[in-house]
Amino acid sequence: MGDERPHYYGKHGTPQKYDPTFKGPIYNRGCTDIICCVFLLLAIVGYVAVGIIAWTHGDPRKVIYPTDSRGEFCGQKGTKNDPLVLLEFQCPTPQICVEKCPDRYLTYLNARSSRDFEYYKQFCVPGFKNNKGVAEVLQDGDCPAVLIPSKPLARRCFPAIHAYKGVLMVGNETTYEDGHGSRKNITDLVEGAKKANGVLEARQLAMRIFEDYTVSWYWIIIGLVIAMAMSLLFIILLRFLAGIMVWVMIIMVILVLGYGIFHCYMEYSRLRGEAGSDVSLVDLGFQTDFRVYLHLRQTWLAFMIILSILEVIIILLLIFLRKRILIAIALIKEASRAVGYVMCSLLYPLVTFFLLCLCIAYWASTAVFLSTSNEAVYKIFDDSPCPFTAKTCNPETFPSSNESRQCPNARCQFAFYGGESGYHRALLGLQIFNAFMFFWLANFVLALGQVTLAGAFASYYWALRKPDDLPAFPLFSAFGRALRYHTGSLAFGALILAIVQIIRVILEYLDQRLKAAENKFAKCLMTCLKCCFWCLEKFIKFLNRNAYIMIAIYGTNFCTSARNAFFLLMRNIIRVAVLDKVTDFLFLLGKLLIVGSVGILAFFFFTHRIRIVQDTAPPLNYYWVPILTVIVGSYLIAHGFFSVYGMCVDTLFLCFLEDLERNDGSAERPYFMSSTLKKLLNKTNKKAAES
Predict the structure, then answer these.
(1) Which range in 61-65, 372-376, 506-510, 608-612 is most confidently predicted, on average pLDDT?
(2) Residue 487 confidence (pLDDT) above 90
(3) Do residues 502 and 432 touch, judged by C-beta distance below 8 A?
(4) Which of 26, 356, 557, 600 has the most Cβ atoms closer than 10 angstroms to its Cβ?
């Protein structure tokens, strides 16, 4: 064709003069949506400032380490006992830090007059002096009335409750002395320590699972590598087998429906003459036992009519949509070729995953620091009636305060973390801003990946001589263009989606608060709002995806790209529906094939059912741990590969529609589609002389 070939349409939709150095559809573009880019940068600066404030005021030790009744952290430098474990967790009694958990039954009454008193004193409050009577010590809460064998977990002591031959025990005993001269059954401890016992069981389960991972991790990696190889192989095979798989699926649906019609007819004929089979559905009415309807001829007649209608509809759709199905298959095959020429695109999901991990890590750390920015709050505790119970107090001035004089048995103990300053009142708003910025940045990262992949695959489509006209590094070129020219457009689309998502989070929060309410109108309104915003989020994701493809092709701003993409798809709605269903079927088939194959292989391997490698499989506590890990990992790997492939199909489809609408096959406006698509549509590119 020579140098007379024109360039494709530029930034403003006007034909550009052919450039022999042109290697894709991107040409003559400038920065878009600059205001949104500025807003994003300012928001990031504000987000960093919020993080600095949170890191300055927050202290994650408040959620990691336990505290005693004075608010001091156990197990930290600066405390009097180190290492430390919290005793009497979540009790109104004094909480102290100890070096290790008690390992024996012992009461204060017995220990006071024995050699065990020195052992017992380590579980009393710091600075305890044996200068009070027994009743006074127990009443003041200086020492616990009884020690129970306990186990450490998360720097806290939990009663060592376990079952032996169906009998609940703590240590080796089934009863214990309560410290007041009477013995009680261990079952009395179960209700109070039910949550603690559940935590201990969870810890044991976690340890066994960790052991399974330590002996099977390399086999898990081998399974994931197999899943990666199968995903790549499936994408390559789509170039050759896509048409076969689609037509086999269609024929199978027709045959299944045909067999259903035949089965309904046979049942309808078999019931002829049987007593009660001629009763009509109207006369029978509603029955809770649905098997009754299967004894009526009218039921099978209705089934046969419904299946026949479906069969006719599918056959008619095949007759009228045959060419569109062939076009969808051709686009899928073309997408396989495009991925083959831009193989590095299959690794791009790793970049997206890494950036998303950074967003999640920053959001989570900021949320933790914000939630721990409160100050220690002390409240008055008293076992006897006291008008000041649950009131805030200052542990330093409490002994000389009026409350202490009026309630001699009261104690000023650490209760929780809170605060009444302006900063503390703004914490909820800062948490909402933290969540909003997480959504915005996460959506921006996803948008960057979509524009990058769309730009790379669009370069493939608009290369007239494939693959000679492809740029040297299409993926890196597309990534650079997206950041250099379209950061603002990506921020605009991500902002719209983030606003909808944060509204959905707020609605979920309000819905949880309204669950106990009896207002049916409020519940109905909340359900409708949640449904509407769910639908709105799905629509915005669909619109954003196609808008990003148009941005990658033309370099227009977000609104223009979204409008052009939407109306382009609406003008070709039938093609969109056919391609969407065909690709959904192929991706579902691929995921089932990959995940099912790898999962079955992992099951037979880890359960020692493959004789060849029977002795190689590691011994496990729970064989389902590596199997589930391999299955979930295989699904994520297949999803990552198919997300790239799906973006390729969508990009080529929009390029194909634009190609059909803007070009006519002349030398000035040649078709860029593949020869297979041109053959299906009876399109040809005329030579310069003929033109």
Answers:
(1) 506-510
(2) yes
(3) yes
(4) 26
Q: What's the residue count for the chain?
A: 691
Please give the structure tokens belonging to residue 466.
Answer: 């494939």
Q: Return the residue matching tokens 């007759």.
A: 319
Token pair for residue 113? 């007059």
User: Other C-beta atoms within 10 Å of 275: how many?
Assistant: 7
Summarised one tens digit per residue, pLDDT across range 437-457 is 999 999 999 999 999 999 999
Give whole-number Cα distances, 399 to 67, 95, 144, in Å.
Answer: 21, 18, 21
- Maximum CA pair distance of the chain? 116
3-state secondary structure (DSSP) of residue 354? helix
Question: Are the CB atoms for 66 and 50 separated by under 8 Å?
Answer: no
Quick one: tokens of 675? 């020869």
Percent helix, percent strand, percent coil in the chain, to nearest 5: 60, 10, 30
Residue 509 CA: distances (Å) to CA of 71, 125, 432, 496, 504: 31, 41, 12, 20, 9
Which residue type occupies 397? T
Q: How far is CA 263 from CA 34, 291, 301, in A?
A: 65, 17, 11
Distance CA 555, CA 192 (A): 65
pTM: 0.75
Q: How far apart are CA 345 and CA 351, in angstroms?
A: 10
Question: Cβ(327)–Cβ(677) under 8 Å?
Answer: yes
Tokens matching residue 531: 């449904």
The tokens of 575 are what? 């093609």
Torsion on CA atoms 35, 41, 43, 49, rounded to nearest 10: -150
Cα 385-388-394 angle, rounded to 5 deg = 135
> Radius of gyration of the chain from Cα atoms?
35
Distance CA 534, CA 526 (A): 12
Q: What is the pLDDT of residue 127?
A: 73
- Tokens matching residue 376: 């220690």
Tell whether omega for the bond before 126 is within 30 degrees of 0, i.e. cis. Answer: no
Enter the tokens of residue 49. Answer: 């400032």
pLDDT tens digit sequence for 402-440: 877 788 777 777 776 666 666 777 888 899 999 999 999
**What sign does the CA torsion over 443, 445, 447, 449 have?**
negative
Q: What whole-number distance in Å separates Cα of residue 89 and Cα of residue 155? A: 10
Alpha-carbon torsion (127, 131, 137, 139), positive or negative = negative
Phi then psi for residue 496, to 5 deg, are: -60, -45
